[in-house]
Write a structure and sequence with these properties.
429 residues, mainly alpha, 18 helices
Length: 429
């Protein structure tokens, strides 16, 4: 529990706090959160700009399987390092850790741009994508676990919602910028621009003045720290079920973006001028998802929010698999993106609002693993299915699997605070 003084330091105070006290924007009453969130948004725009450019570049030279593999290299470190990244963020100064990760990703973006600029873009490109992925895996756990310390407890849902919004809204802006750059400039320009966005995030962090609590002293080793996180989850099985929901929807739902280059070139028969917008529509749907969360948060349980999000993701994906009209596909992609945000926001709020502060980083890292670490595996599978069957069939399979995720939520998921008083297991951590 934070002291009144700590809450006052973190809060922007004054009229802004009064104006933003209620609603989905209430977390913005904290100056520290505003600065960190703005930096994260700028950085996310650059990251999606780079990702969009990479996928189009690779698809132009290879198959959907190769696109899936390249995507996997960029994101798979979140799966293998995510849990240790959470333990690291609980042990080290989160501010310094975020700055270090941003610096590494900035250098990797510059080197990727150099590789493409000089036509050295085979193994070297993969290496720098992998290094950047490792830095991102550590960064995202540190960033997500920092959020609860930047806002008051009653604003955690708002903060989680806004974090999802910045990530998904960046999926709209970044790809559109990438599409414009691919048409008007050279292939390497998006990567140099991405490097600048990392620098902007670093500057905002240094200017924020936010005071984060120091890391708690740890006596156990890294392995034991990770095991303690699993023990915490084992003593409260509802956490594992929420994480399984996020993982399932990410694997089959979020991963469909890997197929968008082929949807454009093979199904809709459009070029890179239209590709960026269709990719970006998956993020524009986050605005609708944000509005939906604002409407639902005081009217339905978090479990219901997750179930509705999973089911609507499934329906939009199934419809997307049958669409042959570009603008209809854009609307359906937006619907899928917004629906995924609704489910993931409900899950994130359930997790971050019901765990002990000392375990926050490790539980957040599990959420990151389920959210971001799992989706490249789903993208790889969908790429293989697309090459073996067809891109439409792969999308239909993905949508059908998301129906099963919605059923899982209805039958097995629960959030303790919505039925009984919250209980935190005592593990001596």
């Amino acid at each position: 529990m934070r002291s009144r003084r700590q809450r006052d330091i973190m809060s922007g105070g004054g009229n802004a706090e009064q104006e933003l006290r209620h609603g989905v924007l209430s977390a913005l009453s904290s100056r520290g959160f505003r600065m960190y969130w703005s930096g994260a948004f700028i950085s996310s725009v650059g990251s999606w700009l780079q990702m969009t450019a990479v996928l189009w570049f690779v698809r132009a030279e290879g198959s959907d399987s190769l696109v899936g593999f390249t995507n996997m290299v960029s994101w798979i470190p979140c799966l293998f390092l995510g849990l240790f990244a959470g333990a690291i963020s609980d042990r080290l100064d989160r501010r310094r850790l975020i700055l270090a990760c941003q610096a590494v990703m900035m250098l990797c973006s510059i080197m990727i741009g150099v590789c493409i600029h000089t036509s050295i873009h085979d193994l070297t490109l993969i290496v720098f994508l992998g290094i950047s992925g490792v830095a991102y895996a550590i960064f995202v756990s540190a960033w997500v676990s920092t959020i609860p310390f930047l806002v008051t407890r009653e604003n955690i849902l708002s903060a989680v919602t806004l974090n999802n919004v910045q990530f998904n809204l960046a999926r709209f802006i970044g790809p559109i910028i990438a599409g414009l750059l691919l048409v008007a400039t050279s292939d390497y320009v998006p990567f140099y621009l991405n490097a600048l966005t990392f620098g902007a995030f670093m500057l905002l962090i240094m200017l924020s003045g936010a005071e984060l609590p120091p890391p708690e002293p740890r006596r156990e080793g890294m392995g034991r720290s990770v095991v303690a996180g699993f023990r915490y989850v084992r003593e409260d099985p509802w956490i594992a079920r929420v994480l399984a929901t996020v993982a399932g929807l990410s694997f089959f739902g979020f991963s469909f973006i890997v197929l968008i280059p082929s949807v454009c070139s093979q199904v809709l028969l459009v070029d890179d001028r239209y590709y960026g917008l269709l990719m970006g529509m998956t993020g524009l749907g986050a605005l609708a998802g944000m509005a939906a969360v604002s409407l639902l948060k005081n009217k339905v349980r978090l479990k219901t929010m997750m179930g509705l999000g999973a089911l609507s993701t499934a329906l939009f994906l199934i419809a997307f698999s049958f669409s042959r009209t570009y603008w209809l596909s854009c609307l359906l992609a937006a619907g899928a993106g917004g629906s995924f945000l609704v489910c993931n926001t409900g899950a994130g709020a359930a997790l971050q609002g019901n765990v002990s502060p000392g375990i926050q980083g490790r539980v957040s890292s599990m959420w990151v693993v389920a959210y971001i670490g799992v989706f490249p595996l789903g993208g790889m599978l969908l790429g293989v299915l697309s090459d073996a069957l067809s891109v439409q069939t792969a999308l239909l399979i993905a949508g059908s699997a998301c129906v099963m995720v919605a059923l899982f939520v209805a039958l097995f998921v629960s959030v303790p605070g919505e039925k009984v008083a919250h209980r935190r297991p005592r593990l001596g951590i």
